[in-house]
Amino acid sequence: MAGRHYDTEELQLIATLRDRGFSIPAVARELGRTPSGIQGALRARRWVNPARSKLMSSVSIFSPQQRDAFREFVCSRAAGHTSTDIRDAWNQEAAMKQWPTVNNERVFYYLRAYGLQKTKSEYMRFESYRRRQSLAQQTRRANEQAARLRILRIRRAELYAREADLARRKCHVCRETWPLTDEFFRHSGRGGKYFLKTCKNCYRSVSGTAVERRKQRMEAYDRYVMVKQISLAKADRDAFLHRHRNFPTRRCSRCHETWELLLKRFPKYKVPGGRELYRRTCRFCLRTDSRLKERAKLEWDRIQTAMRDPETDARKAVEQGNQVPFSVQQWTS
Ligand SMILES: [Zn+2]
Ligand SMILES: [Zn+2]
User: Which pLDDT belongs to residue 56?
Assistant: First the structure.
C-alpha cells in the first residue's frame, strides 16, 4: 500500500463514501489521494468488495476508547515484541472483546508515531522473529528440494529409456536408485576417481542449514591448519634441526610434538624476578585452544540471545546469581 497512513477520520470518510456508492477515483478526489492509494487502503483492510461494507464499519475503525487502549497496548509491548507478536496478541484479545482486529501495518504506524519502531538487526534478536524466519526458510528449502527431486526423476526416466543398461547406484540417504553419472553423483574428494554413495540431491540438502554450513567451515579450517600450517612447520623444523644439530628443543605438553625452542614455536612468560621462560605448550596448541574458546563464546552468545526476553530478564539475573558460574568449556567438545 502506497503513501501516508490513513487516520480514523479518513477511513470513516472512505467507508461512508463507498457506502453511498462513490467510485474509487471519486473517493480519491474527495480525500486528495491517488486512486491506487485508496485501493491499497481498501485492500489492506479487506474492504474491496462493497458488499462487505458492513465489515468496513463494524470491524476496523476504533472508537476513541479502543484507540487509547490500542496505543497503550502497542507502546507497552514495543520493547520486547515484534510487530507481528503485537498484532497477534491484540487480535487474540480483540476477538474475545469483539473489538476491531488490526494488521501489521497498523501496529507499524503506531510504533513509528511513537518512535518505537526497530531496525531489522534489533528484530533479529527476537526469538519469535527468528523462529518465523527459519520456519519460512525451512518451508522454502523443502519446496525447492521436492521440485528438484521431481526434475531428477523425470530425467532418470529419460536416461533409462534411452540406455537400459546404464550403471546405477542406490543412494545411501534417500534410498533411491539413480544413474551412476556426473549428473546424479559427485566424485569423491582427491583424484575424483570414485562416485560418492550419496546422490547429489541428498548431498546438497545435508549441507543445507546455516548451522551445518558453519560447522563445515570450521572443520575445513581445522583441516587446513592441520594439513597446511602444521605439516609446513614440521618440514621447516626438520630442515632447521638438520642444519643446527644441537639446537635446544622442547616437547609440547599437549601435542607431544618436539619443536625448536624458539619464540615462533613457544611464547614466553615472565616469572617473579623478571626472568622469561618458554611456555610448555606450543603455539599451535595454544591457537587451537583460543579458537575453540572463541567458538564456544560465540555459541554461548547465540544461545543467550535466543533466550533473551526482556520481561523475564530481571528474574533470570536473580536466578543466575544463585547458580554456579557456567563453564564455557562444556561447549568446546
Ligand atoms: Zn539421495
Ligand atoms: Zn602442541
Answer: 44
